[in-house]
Amino acid sequence: MLEHASVTHAHLKTPKAAAVAGIAFSLLMFTIFWLLRRSVPADPLESGAWLATNARTVALALNLIPFAGVAFLWFIGVLRDRLGHQEDHFFATVFFGSALLFLAMLFVAAAVIGAVILVAASAEPNELINSATFRFARAATYIVMNVYAIKMAAVFMISTSTVVIYTGIAPRWIAVLGYLLALVLLAGSYYISWSFAVLPLWVFLISVYILRDNLRR
Hints:
The protein has one domain. It contains 9 helices and no strands. It has helices at 2-11, 20-39, 50-53, 55-83, 89-121, 125-129, 132-167, 172-188, 198-216. The longest helix is centred in the last third of the chain and has 36 residues, at 132-167. It is elongated, with a radius of gyration of 20 Å.
């Protein structure tokens, strides 16, 4: 019985290359951010002319978001596996909860924009653009991402950086950088157009370190 349990545990052990998920999340988010930035104006009150010219590009970016979400969940699993018995219930709850909230709001914003594109495909573009529904959907998406989702990303970075400092699962400079970037998100995400790239950049750095460390071991 004990032998069977040990074999099962060995089969369920996290692969050493699992940190690739964090790198995949970062690259996908950079691609999504680039596609959206070149297709949709940053102004939430813009006219909506992109629906007639860039709807396909935006749809491609939205279809990549679920894959980025799955990769991010895998990255969280890698972090928890690396913590092992050092995991603190308080900080684990905060970083896990903030990560799930970030993903939930990311998916909600993508669903709203996807619904707008779907409606635009079956209606007159000018009729949709001039409607109150389009204005509401555009403004709601902007607020969800730039106010709430970004703040949850900052909370995730702060809590994870604290765990890094206390457990040593990654270099201290990555944690300090996480604090600084999180403060940028908390204070200036509403005014900085590239704030979406902060979390993927930080995840990329910590994933590269974990991957190298795992393979070296």
